[in-house]
Amino acid sequence: MSDATLNTSRAAGTQGPDKQAAAMGETGKPVAFRGGGFAPRSPKWVGVAVFVVLIAIAEWGTRTGWISALTLPRPSDVLATFQELYQSGMLFKHLGPSLARLAVGALIGVSVGVSVGVLIGLFSYVRAGLVPLVAAIFPIPKIALLPLFVIWFGIGEGSKYALIAFGTFTPTVVATYGAVDNVDRTLIRMGQSFGLSWWSIVRKIVLPGAMPGILSGLRISLAIAIILLVAAEMLGAEYGIGAYILQAGSLYDLERLFAGVVILSVLGVVTSTVIGLIERRVLGWRT
Do the Cβ atoms of 100 and 84 come closer than 8 Å? Predict the structure, then answer.
């Protein structure tokens, strides 16, 4: 090797990667980064488009007679019913008590359920004592217990709170201790090898690792809470979405009936959106 060639090689070795590529000449194409993980991103307009198409089909079908007016009302008539509810003030008169019952009952059931689920996931004696009990009460239809709650707590608000709380408690417990069990044990052993205390491992490893499963269970629990809310309000409630739907059904008023169903659907979408915002806020470390 000549001195000129050796000096050229040394000069290229002391340059950075970009300068080396420029000096040597780029013959290949840049490779796209492929390590972004599995993070699907759905365009927001797709979901809105699906709703618009379904509503348009229902409107067209009811106007042309393809869909009987005895089975499905016109979406335009349901919208007019919404406007009437809003202008008369009855919308908030029914929606306010329902939101209050849902918030109180779900808050009690979810908070107690998460606490019990974490205890079951962390302590063997608690697991041995409570898992059989949870397995025994989980399959019971919670709506069937409504008469019992009425006897225990009366026909007022107490029985409604108790039914919603009990209905959200059991799925939250199951989701929580399942999420704690699924935390990667390698991370826990790593924390132990670094000398972290038990509480530090729980706070920094177990709870963050279990949070995705807990929030997924929360979606199911809140959906169950909305179902039980309607059932509870159909018994002994003057105001509420469930009472409104019961009144409309007894009068065979399809417009009012579907207006109540749409309110419940919107309530479900709102709760799911709120949980999604919490997930993005709490689980930002996954991206």
Answer: no
Quick: pLDDT tens for 182-195: 988 888 898 888 88
CATH architecture of the domain 75-286 equals: Orthogonal Bundle (1.10)
Nearest to 150 by CA among 239, 247, 235, 238: 235
Q: Which token pair is 201?
A: 């491992």
Higher pLDDT, 161 or 238: 161
95 pLDDT above the threshold of 50:
yes
Contact between residue 188 and residue 206 where contact means Cβ atoms under 8 Å apart: yes
- Within the chain, where are the H helices? 3-14, 17-24, 44-64, 75-88, 90-122, 124-137, 146-153, 157-181, 185-193, 198-201, 207-233, 241-250, 254-282
Q: Are 52 and 42 in contact (CB under 8 A)?
A: no
Mean pLDDT for all residues in the chain: 83
pTM > 0.90: yes or no: no
Q: Which amino acid is at 227?
A: I
Query: Residue 157's Cα: distance from chain center in Å?
Result: 26
Pair 206, 185: CB distance under 8 Å: no
Q: Among residues 165, 149, 163, which one has the least CA distance to residue 109?
A: 165
- Torsion angles phi and psi, residue 193, rounded to 5: -70, -25
